[in-house]
Amino acid sequence: MQNKILQDHFEHPRNVGVLEFPHAIGIAENPVCGDLVKIMLSITDGKVQQVKFKTYGCPAAIACSSILTESILNKSIQEIISIRAEWIAEQLGGLPVVQYHCAHLVREALQKALQSLKTK
Ligand code: FES
Hints:
Layout: H1 4-11, E1 24-29, E2 36-44, E3 47-56, H2 59-72, H3 77-80, H4 85-91, H5 100-118
Antiparallel strand pairs: 1-2, 2-3
Helix pairs in contact: 1-2, 2-5, 4-5
Bound molecules: FE2/S2 (inorganic) cluster.
């Protein structure tokens, strides 16, 4: 693996696990590769107080999940709602084009978690 940031987040993913009482859950699955990302958020005063994820997928999907969850901790919903897949890829130092869908999958899981919050 060439990319050291990606390798680090794949081998030592941050925030893996489950929240017992999450305020929001988002699950996204790619039907082509079969990878699945689940993101759980605990929100207090409009900010992400806790975040955990479970990703069943490729190294890039795990690394994207890890760096995204690390980035959104203690951020407001306003700050994270507009996060794009390209931004996630940039945080990892870039992704090969064939792995961009991994960043999109993680972003979709975050969006679904935020949508589940709105519908409560
Ligand atoms: Fe499907 Fe990475 S190969 S998410």
